[in-house]
Amino acid sequence: MDAERRFVRAEEAFRKVLRWMREHHEFFASSIPLIASENVPSPAVREALASDLGNRYAEGYPGERLYAGCRWIDSIEMLGIELAKEVFNAEYADLRPISGVMANLAAYTAFAEPGDVMVALAVPHGGHISHGKREWGGTAGTVRGLRVERYEFDYDRFNIDVDGTRRRLERLEKEEGKRPKVFMLGASVFLFPHPVREVSDLAKEYGARVVYDAAHVAGLIAGGVFQDPLREGADAVTMSTHKTLAGPQHGLLLSWERYAEDFKRVMFPGLHSNHHLHAVAGVTIALAEALAFYHEYARRIVENSKALAGFLMEEGLDVLYGDLGFTESHQVLVDVSRLMGGKEAEFLLE
Question: Which of 58, 61, 175, 214 could form a disulfide with 239 if both were Cys (CB 3.0 to 4.6 A apart)?
Answer without folding.
Answer: 214
